[in-house]
Amino acid sequence: MGAWEVRGDVTGICKSWRDRYPHLAAEVTRITAPMGRGIAWEGAEIWAYRDRPRNVCELLDRNIADFPQREAYVFHPGGERLTWREVGLRVDRVAARLQREYGFGKRDRLALLSLGCPDFVIAYFAVLKLGGIAVPVNLGLTPTGLATQIAKVEAKAVLVSPENWDGKLATVISSLPSVETVFVTGDRAPAGTIPFAHLDRDGAELPASEEIDEWDVCAISFTSGTTGVPKGTMLMHINALGCAQNIAHAAKGLGPEDVNLCMPPLYHNTAVYSDLMPALLTGGTCVIMASFVPNDAIRLIERERVTWAVGAPIMFSMLNNPEFVKHDCSSLKKILFGGHAASETFINQLNRQFAPTAMVNGGSVSESTALGFALPTEDALRKITSCGLSTPNTDIAIFDEDGNEVTEPDVIGEVGYRGQQTNAGYWGEPAKTAEVFRRDGFVLSGDWAKIDAEGYLWLLDRKKDMVVRGGQNVYCIEVENKLYLHPKVQRAAVVGVPDHMFSERLKAVLVLKSGEHATPQEIRDHCANYLAHYETPEYIVFAQTIPTNPAGKTLKPPLVDFWGETEATPLARFLGFCASLPPKLLDVLHLKVDDTAITPHDGLRALKDKTALGERISALIAESGVVALTKPTEARFRA
């Protein structure tokens, strides 16, 4: 069923921060999205903050007027420090020159391909001042990937760092006809490009002006999911402002005296809407890391007296190292993290390490900006693996496969968000917009979830990542949470491995704490104390690291056919596969070679003896991995 097919009113049984904190209920009101502005859910009624600026640029102007000499940004490792007055002067002259010298205007797109630096921040705000659209692009993409995203939004210009020009964008720029100008960060530029310093040169300029309201698109953010082709979701000024206000409330108040440490990369939603925008809202200082280095973060917390930070749980986990105790990090008392349920081990470690006054697990989906749910600090231990309540300007509901709202507690369905942070839709993709953005304002998340009898949200797993073992649905996050209770486990990721007998079997990939050793059976025995037999991983693989995307989300697809750090030959990979199995499965016919069932022991002997069967197994593994032997012919496993 398409998301457009709405069946009846939706009440949303998830409780809200409006219910928990009555003073917040007075800060929001119901508003209606305007018609004819390209908003997928035009005419829908949503919650929004009463006292909200008209646009992001209004916040910048206010800070320049109120705090001209206060430090706005500190950049690491470059060391640049900018006051609000300096930011204002630079933004104004860059905006004016973009408009007058390069014809940049309303709804024109500027793609940003740089790590956090002054040029990125100045360009971002200059584009918004013109009514244009900023498009941060994931720097981890291949040259073709970069070109695909830039082409999708038909960017008029690009701001790129020298290292991302050489060998990356330079190799594909000829395939991007929409790009009229390439600006390179700094004061030098390769042939065919223009140094950003040319826009940012000294000299007075008449201010650029453009009518902007809260329903104008200010950015296109590519979805950060760990599977599939990213889509460009259109953020409006009202979305950015709503997220900033939510962050300030979740942190139990932020003001101009607060100092933020921005740890995620600036091309990610978390950095812009959970760090940069709240600091802009409050007039505080934002310390921007070009890239996250744990020991650098620890030193910055001490040196800059950082008071609040937002990041992926893995970032805070990495701060728990021997360097931490050598520095005074006592100023950091407001910590926000998440995007998903957090493990009990992580929450308890965070509480011991920082004794925070605000410790909030929150998140959303890219299509709903960055903070649609949050677990209040007061519930951090009582509801330790819950994701909490809807933020003050958000409704949360659960939907069944037919699009009907689920109103019974603890019934699993797909979670949807509606509110001030819901984006306008996907850029240039009306069909995909119709699959996700409902006419009533709810955006579907692709996450399985439930809401308990108290109205608290529990995210279970991505719909496409849920493992179905022998007809039993297994939610990987629940298994991962139990794995984290093992004292030797540092990181855990659970995936499904295709299987001829059960459709899928569970696999856990684990990183152990430094100096620790464990056996696969030790891990299975631990899980058996907490989980049903079908929820206990059968495959156990140990690793040095687990891959993540820039948001800190685990990249699960590469783990399905990962059998250890040494996988040079088909025999070595198959040995790793066999080592991950319980001994009882080594003599079970659950592998197939050209429709012939074999046991893992059969396959191992054939590989070692280099028989005809062994040569065929070797060829299959070399071509398609060990899963070529485990994968059924079901349609969902054919890709």
Provide a descriptive summary of the structure in words.
- By secondary structure, the chain is of the alpha/beta class.
- The chain folds into 3 domains: 1-55 and 239-460, ANL, N-terminal domain (Rossmann fold, 3-Layer(aba) Sandwich); 466-561, ANL, C-terminal domain (GMP Synthetase, Chain A, domain 3, 2-Layer Sandwich), CATH 3.30.300; 563-639, no CATH class.
- Helices cover 29% and strands 23% of the residues.
- The protein is built from 19 helices and 30 strands.
- The strands form 8 sheets. The protein has a 9-stranded mixed β-sheet, sandwiched between helices.
- Strand 19 and strand 20 (405-406) form a beta hairpin.
- Helix 3 crosses helix 4 and helix 9 packs across helix 10.
- The protein is globular.
- The model has no long low-confidence stretch (mean pLDDT 92).
Give a brief outline of the structure.
The chain is an alpha/beta fold and 639 residues long. Helices cover 29% and strands 23% of the residues. The model has no long low-confidence stretch (mean pLDDT 92).
